[in-house]
Design goal:
heterodimer, A: alpha/beta, FAD/NAD(P)-binding domain, five-stranded parallel β-sheet, 18 strands, elongated, B: alpha/beta, Rossmann fold, disordered N terminus
Amino acid sequence: MESNPILVVGGGPAGLEAARGAGELGYPVLVVEKTPVLGGSPILAPYAALTPDMEDAETAMKRVIDAVEADPLVELRTGTTVTAAEGELPELSVTLAGPDGEEVVKVGAVILCTGFQHFDPGRETQMYGYYEYDDVITLVDIERMLKDERVVRPSTGEPPKRLCFVQCVGSRDRQIGNEWCSKVCCGIACKEAIEIKELLPSCQVFVFYIDMRMYGFWEDQIYWKAQEEHKVQFIRGIVTEITKRGDEVVIKGEDTTMGRPVEVAMDVVVLSVGMEPSDGSREMAEIFGLPLESHGFIETIDGPLNTVSTSKPGFYAAGAAVGPADLEDSISMAGAAVMKAAGFLRKQLVGA
Amino acid sequence: MPERSTYKTTTARRAPRDEGFVQDEQVILEGVDISGQWNKMYEPREIVDYDLTHLEELTAIPGAESMGWCYQCAQCIPACPVDTAGGDYGPRKIFRRLQTGMDLFDHQDMWLCTSCQNCVRVCPKEVDMVEIMPAARAQAVLDGRNVPGELLEMFQNVAEYGNPMGESARRRTRWTRKAGVDIRLLPKNPGPVDVLWFVGDYYAFHNRGVDAAQAMARVFSRLGVDFGILGVDERTDGDSQRLAGEPGLFEEVAEHNLEQFGKYEFGKIVVSGPHAYNAIKNEYPRVSHGKTGGDTYPVEHYTQFLAQQVDALAPLLSGSFARKVTFHDPCYLGRHNGEYDAPRRLLEAVPGIEFVEMYRCKAQGYCCGGGGGGMWLDGFAAEHQMERLSENRVKEAVEVGAEVLAVCCPYEVSRFEDAVKSTDNDGKLEVLDIIEILDACMEPIGEGVA
């Protein structure tokens, strides 16, 4: 007796890992990805290299994609969205809208892996001038340059002599409404700083931070490495605002360990934008009738001992859909979610 | 070492006027002319540049790399004896100043570290000031960049006379005449001995050091120790010169001393001072030149040597020393070499003694200020600190109610005796070398001579 497939919404790291896990457990799985490509943020952003091991993002994601593509139990639908759901699990009718039109499929369990979106620094444009100043960019923008192995000052096309990262942009901010730490930006800034120094050894790279949040091994793998081997300068004190003085972009803030205000010109300022709930998470929560938690991510129940179960049996969520998450978190949660989904289906099948 | 004329001193602070922060201005307030420099005086608050030139210059010096590793946890600051003495100093501060453009070669921070090792003990990033500062200072001395005059004078003395005081080498054995016991001078009487006693400069030349040296000779004699000294052939151990920025001078005296050791047959070296102990134990084996260079000798600090024989020593302590005594751990015996017990075991053996620890003791012990060249930088330190480290320490000894501050580093008697006077504790606190206390409890020798 075969169950209806597990529906995985989202073809990023968490979704692909959930699909791979389901296949390995012997359960059919249907992956629905709204963009035309698999791989999620690492591919779409695009990221040049993954944090913290700095493996090329395309190579790393290709391994996961190849594994699911080779599994006959995995069905992949790109360019496809979920538009409606009706009935109850494990016989839930889900309407899919794809390149070939609409289709209704029955699914046995649901895992939402709808990811995050980067904070749009235009929301506080008066402070950091992202849309006003060419030389103020985000860590996504610099990732693109790193992928091309060509880091330049956008206004001149010349390599920057002095570049800084500004941490916590769009995170930890009640005024903006984002009262969370995005978890990964400190690590990504360190990773990118190392990559910049490798490309441009004479460029001075600074990181302005409130506190560096380098969980676990990221501490020595990228933070200490950036400071000790690549001479990246870390300065405690966040940048308040960015102004222009002639052609120069000037950061203003306090150097808190010196107790002195700072007004220093930079060739390039990189805003370390954080994570926000994705539109896809909100849409799926609506369609499947799942509540969002107070920050706007998909709510999981049972606290820290159960990171993937939602308030409805048979519905699970993994990765940055439930809150800021790094790759390790996302992959681990995907494994937990597919294990619980398989358990849910098995109970239905054997009537335990 | 460079010619003396190439050295500059930094004794004078630069006036704000020279920095361009001050302008003359005519100001009349309520009919009174208050024109002057002071009315426009301010220091720019903004950091307008992070000029990394000097940080990069410093961390490029072999040995000074770890200065760039600081992540501002600030654990070093409460551990730093200089900051505690009002020096506005410490490894994390130096790093930040370097990051904001300070040239260490043009700044007092170059010369305030006493190499006490307390920051190294607590630093999670292993920023090693005891490696960094000597490496940076060696560069400063080599380039003749703002080396304090009093330090240069000391280097000159060592180069010329083999001791930091500039005393004639011939006077090294003068103290032996009134020791009350016979002391074998190995150059004159070179037969085998059990113990080669490395006396050290302060024991040989300083008037209070001489008291301790004579006490040591008597205690050795009463214990029946078969010992000899190098006499006029001994030179300073060189460790403080190395740490203060003269590794070349260190090598020179180390090679000389190693050559002397090589001439005689002896069981072990016993030293009076923790700096000599550190040098002979840890640094001399690295000295690579010369035919005797690189040799490793068994070496003990005198407290270690005597503590091993405490069972034989105790019966000789017939007198009583009924006073409240505290003990100052020397940085180079304690933190640098891990010996905290030997001096305490000796003090515990003293009849009648009431021993009390200071708050900052053993691994957390406070520095006297004499290490790393600090012994010859008192004038410089006074300019940049609220108090001397020795003064800070003496106040603590008084606070715990001690009547006697016991020491076992030859630098310390003079440092602490000065501090007792300058902190108005004259008559309240006596500073004694442990060997003086032991000697005082024994039957007198050579009555009327000692």
